[in-house]
Amino acid sequence: MRNTSWIRKNWLLVTSVSFVGVHLGTYFIQRAAKQSVKSQSGSKQKSTEE
Asked: CA-based, 20 to 30 A from 44: which of 7, 18, 27, 34?
């Protein structure tokens, strides 16, 4: 009898953790992008007011 690998035994855990990891990663990237856009637009407004 062959030994099954760890990934084959726990494929559901591996896929769910990677799914959550990808979505958390994209969430944080979008959040950082929104913050940088806000800070850039805020600095543009300050420079146009002066």
From this structure: 27
Taking CA atoms, 30 is separated from 20, 21, 34, 43, in Å, by 15, 14, 6, 20
Under 8 Å between Cβ of 34 and 27 = no
3-state secondary structure of 33: helix
Q: What is the pLDDT along the chain (50 residues), one digit of tens a residue?
A: 678 898 899 999 999 999 999 999 999 999 999 999 888 887 666 555 55
Distance of CA 45 to the CA centre of its chain: 29
Tokens representing 12? Answer: 């559901």
pTM summary value: 0.63
